[in-house]
Amino acid sequence: MNKDTIISLLVKSLKNPRSAVCKTGIMTCADMFKAFGDKIIEFLDPLLAQLLLKSSQDKRFVCDAAEKALVALTTWVSPVDAGPSVEERAILYLEAQDRVTKGASLKWL
Nearest 5 degrees, angle CA 14-CA 16-CA 17? Predict the structure, then answer.
């Protein structure tokens, strides 16, 4: 298996509605950040988006695992290699997610 296939399967597990499957995928992300370090940067976008989404979920154990994976990301992937775009992508994604959440909650009012 190549890295593209592994990352796509990992993203699929992160999107899984079953919390246990999702948590396992999140823990795998943390292990991959630790194992591959800067070599994972090219695959960071889909993983970062899912980790940010899962860190704001209502299931506490999923949130905790996502936060640990994000800490692993910041620990093992050097910011110089990732560039300022990681922070920018995180901010843009969170702003977009906030707009979607606000729009969905306005529909219920």
Answer: 125
| CA-to-CA separations, 85 to 4, 7, 62, 74, 108, in angstroms, rounded | 21, 20, 25, 13, 35
For residue 30, which of 1, 5, 55, 57 has the smallest C-alpha distance? 55
Count CA atoms within 13 Å of residue 32 on its CB side: 20
pLDDT of residue 27: 95
Distance, CA of 92 to chain centre: 14
Q: What is the mean pLDDT of each run of 10 residues along the chain (109 residues)?
A: 87 92 94 90 84 82 90 82 60 63 43
Distance CA 103, CA 6 (A): 34
Q: How many residues does the chain have?
A: 109
Please, are residues 55 and 64 in contact by the beta-carbon 8 Å criterion?
A: no
pLDDT of 83: 56
Q: Are 26 and 62 in contact (CB under 8 A)?
A: yes
Residue at token pair 């796509």? 8
Whole-prediction pTM value?
0.72
